[in-house]
Amino acid sequence: MLSFNLFKFAKKHYQGDDLVLIDKAIKLATEAHKGQKRKSGQPFINHPLNVAKIVIEWGMDIDSVLAAILHDTVEDTELTLEQIEAEINQDVARLVDGLTKVGQVRSNMKDLSTYLPATKDNLSKLLIATSQDIRVIIIKLADRLHNLRELKYLSKEKQLKIARESLEVFAPIADRIGMGRVRMEIEEISFSYLEPERFNKLQKLMKKKLGKSTRKLGRVRVEVEKKLTQAVIDFEINGRVKSIYSLHRKMLKKGDNIDNIYDLMALRVIVNNNEDCYRVLGILHSMYKPMVARIKDYIAVPKANGYQSIHTTVITPNKQIAEFQVRTQKMHRYAEEGLAASFHYHDQKSTKNYKGGFISQLPTNLQWVNQLQNIAKKLADGQQIDREQMAVDLFKYQIFVYSPKGDIYNLPEGSLPLDFAYLIHSKVGKHAAGFLVNNKIHPFDKPLENGDLVEVITKRFSKPKPDWLKLVTTSHAKHKLKAQLRIKDKK
Ligand code: MN
Question: Angle at CA 445, nearest 5°, toward 444 and 449?
Fold first, then answer.
């Protein structure tokens, strides 16, 4: 007996041929897993169907849904990749292959890992690097999430092992690719198994505190709604409650006293465009006194994983402290869904890049995903890579700079203007004659800083020179420049 009907659920999101394939995949997987049981006593097939349901909820493309349904077949049943390719298609077979291998990834990671400092977070990067299709990682997260939701059926020992691995590896992966909602659920469940007493204690404490602050914040909310309506701003406002795990982490930093935590509940204002975000901020600061050190503009300077929002904490006349988060709908969707949003079925593209899991329009802050995948691929092909440069590019702190058009680029800290020029386009680098940074002339050998507005002055007859090799720091720029110099030499 199945706990729910996946096909019925899928019908709300997919149509036509897609549904035919979903039906086929369900039958194939059900047949393959026949007789197998989960630790919960339910038929095993419930697990892959639930994973597929999560993948559908994330709005993923049809191939990801089909791969989720079949994700455990090749590893745990008689079904082969060839059969999946024959019955469904090659792309889905490739994804299932990736999902089967990603669990056993550690052996082929060895090459890559010798290049990297060994921390838990790097393990998450390695997993991403070694799966050639980033959708594999997203489906793997859905798989892990469902296993966590059913953790209560496992032995104590297994519970702890899976919870620890989830907190140390899978939560950072979700964070790295911007999937905030998933990261939070993974952390919450894992923490509740790893430190159950602490979890329960904080949950109770939170409940007690929240009752009071919800009432007080309710008043603030009404005042804000009134002002924003008067200003004719189209907005939504709602309260977001801090997760127990992030409360735990914050309390460790704040003397373990919940009274020092100001953002147990924050008010989230969602508007239509960037301009309105700043208008809302202005209105909030005209109503209440801001705590200046707590204003954070992640719209102008996004977090490394692409998160954008303005955060501000204010004090109301009756001494109530309230945190606000202001963002656009688009930023909100990204904060919750992250990279998964790039694979939405309704804006699915059938380009080669897309099919291969390399999204052509990867947000600039996530270029490291492609970078890592390319490096992993080179290693797999037995090619040499520049060890020193790789470590520099991937593990240095990143800075964000802007083009005059307002596009955001990220670069490793210490990057020089020519690095930026080559990042825009190798032709821009080639013909660079000078730089304006924040409208002032900027020498070739002075590093860029976070938030700089950089304009490259190009001249058609300007040519790259050998001593420019000392004026670039990123492997990308070095590579392009060397190629250009080589061509010049030959001439
Ligand atoms: Mn599974």
Answer: 95
Kindly report, residue by residue over 324-366, the tens digit of the pLDDT: 999 999 999 888 888 887 777 655 444 444 555 555 455 655 6
Q: 116 CA to middle of ligand 1, Å?
A: 29
| Highest mean pLDDT, choosing among 13-17, 141-145, 362-366, 472-476 | 141-145
Instruction: Return the residue matching tokens 């092909």.
Output: 381
Where helices occur in 88-195 by DSSP H, the ranges are: 90-102, 106-113, 120-130, 134-149, 156-165, 171-176, 180-194
Give catalytic status of residue 187 as yes or no: no
133 CA from centroid of ligand 1 (Å)? 18
Distance (angstroms) between ligand 1 centre and the Cα of 4 equals 17
Which residues crowd ion ligand 1, with CB under 5 Å? Answer: 72, 143
Reduced 3-state DSSP string for 398-457: EEEEECCCCCEEEEECCCCHHHHHHHHCHHHHHCEEEEEECCEECCCCCCCCCCCEEEEE
**Dist. CA 140 → ligand 1 center (Å):** 8
Is 449 in the active site?
no
Active-site position among 31, 75, 236, 407: 75
Q: Which one from 76, 85, 111, 297 is the annotated catalytic residue?
A: 76
Q: Phi/psi zone of residue 438: left (φ > 0), alpha (ψ -120 to 50 degrees), beta?
A: left
Chain segment 77-100, per-residue pLDDT in tens: 999 999 999 999 999 998 998 888
59/390 Cα distance (integer angstroms): 34
